[in-house]
Amino acid sequence: MTITLVLVLALSVVIGLSLGVLGGGGSILTVPILVYVAGFEAKEAIAASLFVVGVTSAVSVFSHARGGRVMWRTGLIFGAAGMAGAFVGGLLGGHIPGQILLIAFAVMMVATSVAMLRGRKKKSDDGAAPVRHELPLGRVLLDGAVVGLVTGLVGAGGGFLVVPALALLGGLPMSIAVGTSLVVIAMKSFAGLAGYLTTVQLDWGITLGVTAAAIVGTLAGSKLAGRIPEAALRKAFGWFVLAMGTFVLIQQAPADMRWFIAAAVAALTAATAGICWFFISSCPLRNRSGRRSNIPSPA
């Protein structure tokens, strides 16, 4: 077993941890690992990531279901719409140049990292049960198809688009939104893979090895879910995804533009952090010490 293969398998465990704990982020990690460590071509890496994430999500669903964290009806409706979009995205992706797909993937990574760093606004107290209302079927089908198209095309954006959609549309608690999203991700991933397999051949040896390592990670991640502070984990992962997205974007840029892109991203990050620090009272960068003082006193 070569050092490269050992490194690929070790990193694959992190893929599973991300899916098990956050309900997303699997393909965000899988594609760069397969392209820059395993040496896959862009289209092959995207297709393989759909298989890895699909199988890993399907396995992770069972542990979440045992904990009562899956709403099957919601997941199946959203997933069915997502499968149609993902299959079309997979068909289109097979005919788009690999460099364009990787640039689109990098843009998706940066957008995902921004969403993760911003976090979610809590509409109810942690102790209050979120209100679950009927899902608007037309909106669910439309959102599912759009999310599926993005996932099938670039192999990314599944969990971090599905989880907020489920939380907003159905009023689901975060833990249930994460568990239900895994049903959707598995369905969409297999549909997108079917589209890609019409034009792409996979190295099944490495793909199955990565899948097995990711499954180990997701089983551990599902046990850790709820034990690690979600906000801290999400922000740490968000910065990591931002760094990875910037790296992929720089790698795909012309040689004379790489330093300019790196400097632009660094300047934008510094400016955003500065604006947050000086002008936003609820900025998470300086809100750690303030959180204790913001805890309401008992009536």
Walk me through what this model shows:
This protein is mainly α. It has twelve helices and no strands. The protein has helices at residues 3-22, 26-37, 42-66, 72-93, 98-118, 137-154, 159-170, 174-196, 204-224, 230-252, 258-279, 288-293. Helix 5 (98-118) packs antiparallel against helix 10, helix 6 packs antiparallel against helix 7 and helix 7 crosses helix 8 (174-196). The model is unreliable at 123-134 and 288-299 (pLDDT under 50).
The number of distinct β-strands equals 0
Which regions contain 5 or more consecutive residues with pLDDT less than 50? Answer: 123-134, 288-299
The tally of helices reads 12
Query: How far apart lie the N and C ends?
Result: 63 Å
Instruction: Round the Cα radius of gyration to an integer and report it.
Output: 19 Å
Give the overall form: globular
Largest sheet: none
